[in-house]
Amino acid sequence: MKKPAVFIDRDGTINEQMGYINHVSRFILLPGAAESVRLLNGHGYLAIVVSNQSGVGRGYFPIELVHDVHEYMKSLLEKEGAAVDGIYFCPHHPEALVPEYRIDCNCRKPKTGLIEKACEDFDIDMKNSYVIGDRCSDIELADRSDLKGLMVKTGYGLGDIEYVLPNTSFEPVYIAKDLLYAVRWIIEREDL
Predict the structure, then answer these.
(1) From 11, 134, 143, 178, the catalytic residue
(2) Has 138 been annotated as catalytic?
């Protein structure tokens, strides 16, 4: 049976935005992040992380670090009774220093490859699915994937909302204070 998904950006949405997370110690969950994922778990949504991690291609850290950070994130969430169903990330960049990652891929947001991969792995009810992120590229990803996009004010959110969003051809269905407010908004829509 198909399940709706919430595709969640990582940096600036789940964890503090501090540039490239080039060491596990720099990964800090934002307040309410675990509760947000736990709410999604409890309401039958797949919680799927989708993230650009071009620091790999840029040579800032090895791909193994991204996996280590994700294991650490999962352990922090699990301590609070929350679990992500899937994690998809793009290590590429068209101008990457590391040759094997120097490609113009389909998985770098706002392109739709990460969501397409998740749809291969899960039976997703796309009609009732969402994207949550702090960048206009997340909302463009939602638009390109025919999903509803919610923007959060954490991370790059405030700046993108004020300076970038007015110049785009798409808009979020809701702008939330943070991930928890965004998830609560989604859950409240279930009963409408």
Answers:
(1) 11
(2) no
